[in-house]
Write a structure and sequence with these properties.
six-stranded antiparallel β-sheet; elongated; binds manganese (II) ion; 13 helices; about 400 residues; about 35% helix; four-stranded antiparallel β-sheet; binds guanosine-5'-diphosphate
Length: about 400
């Protein structure tokens, strides 16, 4: 589950990570009130208005702007709230902005120039360890840095037996070229960041930029936080931060009925039991000349109700030209699934795309008979290849 910047910063701050302070606002009036409150609390005269959507690159798309007085706060908030923000990380249609973060300006002039760094904490899947990835090239697209100047990206692996050791935090600060107050600030920052990452059961933290202010404070200016969905059961407070407006509506609906669904670009809908078989089915569809329209694991109990819910989800996608149902009857009996398909189909009236059903395993033969005798426009198959050929035929 991804968090908005303002929510990510709240989580960071609760573990002692210093952040650029801000208040979220839904309207220009609220933005002005937020700016006044921030001036009282922090003494800042200038404010940055930041679009809150689940996508990076907001600055480039016009979603992050500096306001030098309350009139500008009102005008800019009015421009950003309700806009369709298009960034390198959104689709071509962009994302609708429902709220902004009004934040203190932290790039104020002073004894030294403000400096931007990149720091993320994430799992290194090769070593199975958490690691800190960091760079002096903050504020920029990290993918570009990785491509053009890979020697400017550093890694620090965390041994799970010891946790982050103090010398490692110092090494990060050293490699970023810091000294004095900023060096100390950075070691504290990194230590708190790793603690926050571990304690919140996150799967990724990306702070870009981490800022060294002109008076040598180290603060998180941006926060991209992803919490591991499988850990949300023990973080009800984070789960409450979920913003359904930011998520794919069909996937939201699927979760509500307990189906594991991922929307994809293709034209063949698939309904499968088991994630492994679902992956294999997607390969099969590609080999047959189609493209999967979705990943859908209906799980172990494919009864009429679940099958109907699954059909309904798949059919929400207008690109779907055929549906392939691929069920392995291990614990679940194929004839019960077949009955579920027939019942669901009858219940739904007409389905305007061809359906190919492959049932294999316990009572597969009875299941095939049930489908073939149902009088419905459903083709049955027992072998994987047979199913692929039938998909190919209906797409031709
Ligand atoms: P992103 O574009 O979605 O990654 O959003 P960020 O939160 O990283 O902000 C984008 C850019 O806005 C930063 O790299 C900064 O250059 C700029 N910015 C952010 N906060 C401030 C601020 O307080 N003052 C000024 N002047 N610029 C800021
Ligand atoms: Mn950023």
């Amino acid at each position: 589950m991804n968090l908005h910047e303002y929510q990510g910063k709240e989580v960071l701050n609760s573990f002692g990570v210093t952040i650029q302070r801000g208040i979220v606002a839904q309207t220009p009036d609220e933005a002005v009130a937020a700016a006044k409150k921030l001036t009282e609390d922090t003494g800042t005269g200038w404010h940055v208005i930041k679009a809150q959507v689940h996508a990076g690159g907001r600055g480039k798309g016009g979603g992050v702007k500096l306001a030098k007085n309350l009139d500008e706060v009102r005008t800019i908030a009015g421009q950003i709230i309700g806009m369709n923000l298009i960034t390198p990380q959104t689709s071509a249609e962009g994302k609708k902005v429902h709220q902004v973060l009004v934040a203190e300006d932290v790039y104020y002039p002073g004894d030294s120039e403000p400096e931007e760094y990149y720091i993320s904490v994430l799992l290194n899947r090769t070593t199975g360890r958490n690691m800190i990835m960091y760079s002096t090239e903050g504020g920029m697209d990290i993918e570009t840095v990785a491509e053009e100047t890979p020697h400017l990206i550093f890694h620090e692996e965390i041994d799970p037996a010891t946790g982050l050791l103090p010398f490692q935090a110092r090494k990060v600060a050293f490699n970023l070229g810091l000294s004095g107050t900023a060096f100390k600030g950075m070691t504290k920052f990194v230590t708190a960041l790793v603690k926050a990452y571990e304690s919140s059961d996150s799967s990724m933290f990306e702070i870009n930029p981490v800022l060294k202010t002109s008076d040598d404070k180290i603060i998180a200016v941006d926060a991209k936080v992803s919490i591991d969905d499988n850990a949300l059961f023990r973080h009800k407070d984070y789960e409450a931060m979920r913003d359904l407006r930011e998520e794919n509506p069909v996937e939201v609906e699927a979760r509500a009925v307990g189906l594991n669904y991922v929307d994809l670009e293709g034209n063949v809908g698939c309904m499968v039991n088991g994630a492994g078989l679902a992956m294999a089915t997607m390969d099969l569809i590609k080999q047959a000349g189609g493209e999967p329209a979705n990943f859908l694991d209906v799980g172990g109990t494919a009864d009429a109700e679940r099958v109907e819910a699954a059909f309904n989800l798949i059919l929400k996608d207008p690109a779907v030209k055929a549906i392939l149902v691929n069920i392995f009857g291990g614990i679940v009996r194929c004839d019960r699934v077949a009955q579920g398909i027939v019942d669901a189909y009858k219940n739904m009236g007409t389905i305007n795309v061809p359906i190919i059903v492959r049932l294999q395993g316990t009572n597969a033969d009875i299941a095939k008979e049930l489908i073939d005798n149902s009088g419905l426009d459903v083709q049955s198959a027992i072998e994987f290849q047979e199913a692929a050929d039938k998909v190919q035929a209906v797409l031709a």
